[in-house]
Write a structure and sequence with these properties.
By secondary structure, the chain is mainly alpha-helical. Helices cover 83% and strands 0% of the residues. Helix 1 runs parallel beside helix 3 and helix 4 crosses helix 6. The longest helix has 53 residues. Bound molecules: zinc ion. Zinc ion (ZN) binds next to helix 1 and helix 3.
């Protein structure tokens, strides 16, 4: 096994801690820190730094996930509120209640291309009904479904990756 000088060992330590050093380098560093107290100190400091930054990243993701879940819930509440108001004020159109679900389903199936659905549906209704309100309601409710589905998939999708 190659004998390392302290200088070379210290150059290699960050690479070993980050997991990008070659196996040979890693073995040489570990061999060196076993017999050199100064380099061992640096190695331990670097290890702690690495663990701390890993923890920070995980914490960030947790916060982000919580924010996404909260946004998804708020979106759902807003959607229900919009549906209730529209149903009460315009007229009872039960088809409206299916729109967010249709939007969510289109996102699951088509991902970012699903944005075409509210645009086309909104435009179609606008032309058909000759009412801007109908078009906006149609497109808006479909959009809300898409946004909610996107947030939920993003939030819970990450979690699944971490379990692996
Ligand atoms: Zn040394």
């Amino acid at each position: 096994m190659t004998e390392l000088t302290c200088d070379i060992c210290r150059d290699l330590i960050p690479l070993v801690v980050d997991g990008v050093a070659s196996e040979e380098s890693e073995a040489a560093v570990k061999e060196h820190v076993a017999v050199c107290a100064e380099c061992r100190d640096m190695y331990q400091n670097e290890l702690e730094r690495g663990i701390a930054s890993l923890r920070e990243k995980t914490a960030d993701e947790k916060v982000l996930r919580r924010v996404r879940i909260r946004l998804a819930w708020q979106g759902m509440l807003l959607t229900f509120a919009a549906l209730a108001v529209t149903t009460l004020t315009v007229r009872t159109v039960f088809l409206l209640w299916m729109l967010p679900a249709v939007g969510a389903a289109s996102y699951v199936l088509m991902r970012r291309y699903s944005l075409a659905v509210p645009v086309l549906a909104g435009a179609a209704v606008l032309v058909w009904d000759r009412s801007l309100l109908s078009g906006v309601v149609m497109g808006g409710l479909l959009c809300m479904g898409i946004v909610i589905a996107a947030l939920l998939i993003f939030a819970f999708g990450k979690e699944k990756q971490h379990d692996l």
